[in-house]
């Protein structure tokens, strides 16, 4: 067998090279901003991520003719959790403020939340002014500062029936004393409710509720 001429070998090699070059082409894998992927034989549009690759031109590029790929699901970040707030107990109410007051005319004891009293007039004999007949039988109760001097030309009898201005005296109790006084008032109120008729109970019940509220700081 005779060897082929050199020119024929060169021509055959060129034909094979052209055949191989004609059998491949450049494709582009384009990724959009939303994660969608597409394949095409043209460069990707601006804003898309491009990745070139070689493929057989006799076959369709990867993904051509197929349904477009669905975009990759976007994972949502978990919602921010609010920091746990520890429950702080409410502050304790302040201790009650209470004044023990004594009437100037009969030494009757009562309680006041302010200690402020109004002056009033009583017969001079009630407060036991010296020299009055009525005062000889009544125990003196008001301080000396609340007993103004009374001058009457009619003598002791006129002084006893004359009116003088007096004012009750009050002193503030300690928190412990105030709590004891409030409890005593509540016990007295409950005792009255047991003996009261139906018409008197609503007022006593409202008073009892107020006394309980005042003991919140005890």
Question: What features would you describe in this structure?
Answer:
By secondary structure, this protein is α+β, with helices and mostly antiparallel strands. Among the domains are: 6-56, no CATH class; 116-172, no CATH class. It is built from 4 helices and 8 strands, in the order αββββββαββαα. Strands 2-1-3 form a 3-stranded antiparallel beta sheet. A hairpin with a 5-residue loop joins strand 1 (24-31) and strand 2 (37-40). Helix 3 (175-195) runs antiparallel to helix 4. 9% of the residues are buried.
Helix/strand class: alpha+beta
Helix and strand pattern: HEEEEEEHEEHH
Alpha plus pi helix count: 4
- Assign a percent range to the helix content: 25-40%
Number of DSSP strand runs: 8
Please indicate the percent range of residues in DSSP E strands (runs of 2 or more): 15-25%
Strand ordering within the main sheet: 2-1-3
Extract low-pLDDT stretches: 6-17, 131-147, 149-154
Chain-averaged pLDDT = 75
Short characterization:
This protein has 218 residues and is of the alpha+beta class.
